[in-house]
Each structure stands twice: as C-alpha cells, then as structure tokens.
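Standup notes
- DV: blocked on the single-chain target, sequence here:
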Amino acid sequence: MTYKIGLAVAAALALYGCGGGAPLPPVVDMQGVDVAQYNRDLAHCENNPPAFTLGNATSNCMRAKGYNILANN
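- DV (later): unblocked, structure below
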C-alpha cells in the first residue's frame, strides 16, 4: 500500500514539473548575432527537444549551435 502511494506521489510530482508553462529562453550574448537567425535557431531548439537531456535542453541546443549562453532560465 505504501509503495503505491509513493509511486502516485512521484508520478504527480513528475507531471507537475512538466506542466509549468513555457520555459524562458536562455540569456545569450547577442554581440555579433543576427537576430533573425537567432529567432529561427531558438524556435528550432524549443520545438525539437531531445528525448533525454541533462540540464536545460534549450540552452544545450543553442550552445551546440554556437551561441554563448550567459545564463539558463
């Protein structure tokens, strides 16, 4: 019985963490960055998250595209 309650609580917490609304984009050093390209890259990173990642998926994606990430939100 206790096992089932613990499993239900863990599932509820996992779902709660996923439904917190849209995450804020990372803070990026915009010096020398084409804003139109940045917007395309950001949209791609936000709309195509990896199946599994450690840390902030959008920040990791933008870093992989060559952006200098100053802070993760």
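- Follow-up: The mean pLDDT is 80.
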